[in-house]
Amino acid sequence: xxxxxxxxxxxxxxxxxxxxxxxxxxxxxxxxxxxxxxxxxxxxxxxxxxxxxxxxxxxxxxxxxxxxxxxxxxxxxxxxxxxxxxxxxxxxxxxxxxxxxxxxxxxxxxxxxxxxxxxxxxxxxxxxxxxxxxxxxxxxxxxxxxxxxxxxxxxxxxxxxxxxxxxxxxxxxxxxxxxxxxxxxxxxxxxxxxxxxxxxxxxxxxxxxxxxxxxxxxxxxxxxxxxxxxxxxxxxxxxxxxxxxxxxxxxxxxxxxxxxxxxxxxxxxxxxxxxxxxxxxxxxxxxxxxxxxxxxxxxxxxxxxxxxxxxxxxxxxxxxxxxxxxxxxxxxxxxxxxxxxxxxxxxxxxx
Length: 351
Prior knowledge:
This protein has eight helices and eleven strands.
């Protein structure tokens, strides 16, 4: 215990060493140097030079200390944010994954975009979302949605009930935030933070490749195959979570099957909304078509190609948060249905 206290004491005193040394130098010069006691021009110039050097040393030392604290704070923030939006594994239940995100806030690793992929007994479930705003201010809403999703996907057999859980968690977070921002109001606010919302895309990929989707105001994903990139669309999207309540019935939309060798490309609206210096939007369909090529789909190659093209188009960091996710079906075996029909047959066309 004594050794630990001694180490802590030394650790606290060490940063004070250089400032004390500079201060002692200035005091010693002023009190002990005969030149410092004179009032002539030469003495004043020397004294000014000494104190200028001492002041510069103190400023540089303070700058180094602040930079060190800033690096430590950023390291802690990065670790905390990476726990919130965890790096995805390379493979989940026969699906290859590749994902990345880019915050519009230079001081943040993550912003208002979120994604997660979890294998459950109901199939592989995927969420991609985008909360209003970006940077550190949106992290609390991201935490509320992701925390609810990670529990609900295992508990709820129906995708609509998962979405209902996300809606309740998001509304609860907004109420708690409103009480924290306006504690004098008391009680339950009727409209806690009416302008806040989150777009959500929920996917369920079953063992036979069948895809079911619920979309709350989020961009639809793209279906990728050799030499093609097609938008995957279904019914009219539901409104984003927050401003309006969800309808009573939430049937998931069946979108056919994701065949072996095919992939789904999920993204947030920061991708297609990115503009270049002339105000032109990012041409995502053309970039995806070039990235896929005529050969087999490689999730990592697609991700790198899209991200590089996006950064070139935006001239560096985009103005909005960006999240990209590629889910590639790499299941080798062919699961057959009860009728004996192979997985490669689509129930209806992916358009």
